[in-house]
Structures are given as structure tokens and as C-alpha cells.
Write a structure and sequence with these properties.
Number of domains: 2
Shape: elongated
Distance between the termini: 110 Å
Number of helices: 5
Structural class: mainly alpha
Order of helices and strands: HHHHH
Amino acid sequence: MASAPAPSAARLYRPNRFVSLPAELDPDTYDTSPEKRRAEAERLAIRSQLKRQYLLQLNNPSPPAVIEDPALIRWAYAKSQNVYPTFRPTPKTSFLGAAYALGPLLFWIAVLKAHRDYKEKRIQEG
């Protein structure tokens, strides 16, 4: 005789009072209030308008020389120009800064000094 199939893991799951739920199972993430749904709908509308505007520029028969994507401009600014608010001076960055600033200078001083000493020695030897 065949036994009944084993119940699925979803049916066997019981919340554990010692462990918190992961974010994916937290009701706050998927049980949204009407305000949250309205805000998400507004963000979706803004995204779709920006996407439509970009696609209209992209598929224009006589396009402008440069098609500007505002999201890409913001990302490029945050990546390249806005470095200092997120920079933290640490011993490692201080050492690397000193090495990059003084390293080449000390290297060329040593090379030029060695070359001058070599020439001086050859001149003295005749």
C-alpha cells in the first residue's frame, strides 16, 4: 500500500520565536498600506514618463547630437565628482597618498644622484 505523500515544507513551517523572519517573509514588505502603494504608483509613473521621453529622443528621425539621460548624468556625477563626502581618511589611505606623492619624487632623486655620482667618478678617474 502506498503511503500518503509527505507534506510540503511550506505546510510544515512554523515561526520560531527565537529567530526573526527574513525580510522576504516579513509582512511589512509585501503587505503594503494604501499610502505606500500610491507612492509606488507615483514613482512608477515618473519612471515610465522618463523612459518614454528617452525612447522618443532615441527613436527620433532627426535626433540631437547628444541624448542626455538624467539618471546616467546623476550616476556619473555621484561616481566621479562627489567623491569627498564618502571618503574616509585611514592609515592605509594616508600611506598610499604619501607613497604616490613622494614615491616618484624620491625615485627620480635617487636615479639622478646615482647618475651624477657615476659621472663624477668617471671624471675623477680620467
